[in-house]
């Protein structure tokens, strides 16, 4: 790693990335070099609260020592061996995940996009072999404004211009319905050729859009009624982010297939998983699906520890409790702001949406960074506030102060942080 030390400062690192890397991301000009718990540090040594958490992959906190330990030990023993052979970690991981999440079977993959791709294949196969949809006619219903990843099939589900423009032609037979609209869903479910409905419990990339409390119960009923598989894309929402191990547990709903990713690795390594019962998963026969790294021994060992940390450290409970306190505090202080449209969240998956007239989102993120908190905005209006779930109430309190100070820079209707309001933060 000697060569890394040849770069002098943040600007050097940025210039190097710009010169040698593809320019496919919008990136805040901060060069991170170290992470610990809720904090990340830049190359000049400045500390920030991380309010993006690697797009919710670091729910357990940066460089969690227990997960790190498992990673190191397993990496020293056996890291990759392909699925041509059994390994001494995979079955144990599979049993742990099935028992923890309440499904018969799990199929391990790597990215969230790959989990979605696997679900498309599995649902189509079920459609042909169980529901008896005529060959090549299967349709999958998805929601408008969803995000499933960046592969061709995943972007075929998308209606966002920056996901789709000049990337066509797209995979046919993805039908888009309005999110949080059971009636619109029912209209499409009537088509016999529909094999599945895939939905995010909260639409993260769309700006943390939370449906009504009754939506998913209704979805479950409708999917049963029309003999269509109900698939929850919990890649972002699960593992404590919204206050439960699985977000849909909140509504007492159990989909036929659940997709996990991101925090399944504690932010160390790409790992995803598809959970289903035997009647669906066993439709896949040897040789019909796979991925070189899917379910490798390193991933299997890490996934067990990553989930175990969430359970043992009560991160779901913390997320639920602190999320409410955080939103309450933001609402109290920011209610008079002229630039804010909405403050919302579920657990510690929170967001502030700004009004259309406020066109300074980039500068807002830069100001947040200057004040010691890093995050990013989505769809020109909404900043995501998704800290690692190991954050303490005191740290969250400091973050409220940073956010207020930052918003006040753009809108002086926002009051100064006052200790007299502090009880608001104390549940
Ligand atoms: C709900 C959801 N599904 C799938 C994905 C894609 O995951 P990945 O980037 O690991 O492919 C994301 C990523 O943000 C997501 O939020």
Automatic annotation (TrEMBL):
One MF term in the entry's GO annotations: pyridoxal phosphate binding
Catalysed transformations (reactions): a 2-oxocarboxylate + L-ornithine = L-glutamate 5-semialdehyde + an L-alpha-amino acid; L-ornithine + 2-oxoglutarate = L-glutamate 5-semialdehyde + L-glutamate
Necessary cofactors: pyridoxal 5'-phosphate
Keyword Transferase part of the UniProt annotation: yes
GO biological process, one term: L-arginine catabolic process to proline via ornithine
Keyword terms: Aminotransferase, Pyridoxal phosphate, Transferase
Pfam families, sorted: Aminotran_3
Domain of life: Eukaryota
E.C. number: 2.6.1.13
Enzyme category, top tier: transferase
Pathway in which the depicted protein is active: Amino-acid biosynthesis; L-proline biosynthesis; L-glutamate 5-semialdehyde from L-ornithine: step 1/1
Function: Catalyzes the reversible interconversion of L-ornithine and 2-oxoglutarate to L-glutamate semialdehyde and L-glutamate.
The protein's name in its UniProt record: Ornithine aminotransferase
